[in-house]
Design a protein that fits this description.
The chain is α/β, with parallel strands linked by helices. It folds into 2 domains: 6-222 and 292-328, TIM Barrel, CATH 3.20.20; 225-291, no CATH class. The protein has helices at residues 15-27, 45-53, 72-85, 101-104, 112-127, 167-176, 188-204, 226-243, 245-250, 255-264, 271-278, 283-289, 295-307, 322-328, and strands at 6-9, 32-35, 59-62, 65-66, 90-95, 132-135, 140-144, 160-164, 179-182, 215-222, 291-293, 312-318. Strands 1, 2, 3, 4, 5, 8, 9, 10, 11 and 12 form a 10-stranded parallel beta sheet that branches. Strands 6-7 form a two-stranded antiparallel sheet. Helix 3 crosses helix 5, helix 8 (226-243) packs across helix 10 (255-264) and helix 8 (226-243) crosses helix 12. It is globular and about 55 Å long.
């Protein structure tokens, strides 16, 4: 591929296995690895540190940490520490999380746009070696700085990306962030609406949408057996149809299918429920919102996302042979 390409990891592999995959991706010319922090399974920061300590050039992003459960001063301290480990290679990806998970752990996601603006402002100021005072609706910092004692004071080169799905969050991202992490399980047509919203926000900051990096999560299920590739992706698609219907609706998935899936799945869904519900999901829905199939098919689908405005695919590998997917998209 001529564009940059990145790897996305969740919790399907042990951390040591993940380190091996990240090292292999680096050898094959991948630009970045993004580590998930969405469910209560694997924290993003620990594997990010492991990747940073065992690689030389690949960039390492959080894909994404939420803006609610980590104090912004602690967020800045964490990413400052990661930058100490891999200077200039760390990306702070922040998102607004999702329900019902947030509600179940006691987080009320009220005024997410205001909260995101305050958190990004605070974290950026602290990483820029500023003394930050904010008495906001959510963030309350009183003359706070990263109080270095045993190292030289310096701004940390940690860009801040927002993981946005809704168009209002997309506009805010265009205004205040260094980049956007475009979501997965959306259609390429969704990207065009997202770019319009990003452009509106960017104009508020007297810049254009081209000033923002726009990597995109893409579910990638590749296999020489096309049916096996589609079936591997179908399970993940089904889970998201039931648990994050706002993402699915944004991609044009019919509400009738969302309602039907919702009647089958509970939260958290059991494996048996997901497999039963997956029988309701047709191939065309799987192919609309994922890159699934043979190597040629997945490359073609990823190209659609790039044509629709993404700057770099962040490939979420499904199936047992992650190295095959890395090889399909290798840049060297």
């Amino acid at each position: 591929m001529s564009s940059p390409v990145a790897l996305y990891l969740q919790d399907a592999h042990s951390i040591r296995e993940s380190i091996d995959l990240v090292q292999y991706a680096e050898q094959r010319g991948f630009d970045a690895v993004w580590q998930a922090d969405s469910r209560l399974v694997r924290d993003a920061v620990v594997p990010m540190a492991a990747f940073a300590a065992t690689t030389d050039s690949i960039r390492i992003g959080s894909g994404v940490v939420d803006c609610w459960t980590r104090n912004p001063a602690r967020l800045a301290s964490t990413f400052s520490t990661l930058d100490d480990l891999a200077p200039g290679r760390v990306i702070c990806g922040i998102g607004a999380w999702w329900d019902p998970l947030a509600a179940k752990v006691g987080v009320e996601r009220s005024r997410p746009l205001r909260v995101m603006r305050e958190v990004v402002t605070a974290v950026r100021g602290l990483l820029n070696n500023e003394t930050v005072t904010i008495d906001g609706a959510y963030v309350h910092l009183d003359g706070v700085e990263l109080d270095y004692v045993h190292q030289p004071r310096r701004p940390k080169d940690v860009p801040i990306y927002i993981g946005a799905t809704g168009m209002q969050m997309m506009e805010l991202t265009g205004e205040i962030a260094d980049g956007v992490v475009l979501n997965y399980l959306v259609s390429p047509d969704y990207n065009r609406r997202a770019l319009d919203a990003l452009a509106v926000g960017a104009a508020r900051a007297d810049r254009t949408v081209d000033a923002l990096d726009r990597p995109q999560l893409v579910v990638c299920s590749v296999d020489s057996d096309r049916s096996a590739a589609l079936d591997a992706a179908r399970l993940l698609v089904t889970q998201y149809l039931g648990q994050q219907p706002h993402i699915m609706a944004a991609s044009g998935v019919p509400q009738s299918l969302l309602d039907e899936i919702g009647r089958v799945l509970t939260w958290p869904a059991t494996n048996e429920e997901v497999r039963a519900a997956s029988k309701l999901v047709p191939d065309d829905v799987v192919q609309m919102i994922t890159a699934s199939g043979t190597p040629d098919e997945v490359q073609s689908k990823v190209a659609e996302y790039l044509d629709a405005g993404a700057t770099c695919p962040i490939l979420y590998p499904l199936g047992s042979d992650v190295r095959l997917m890395i090889d399909v998209f290798a840049r060297q």
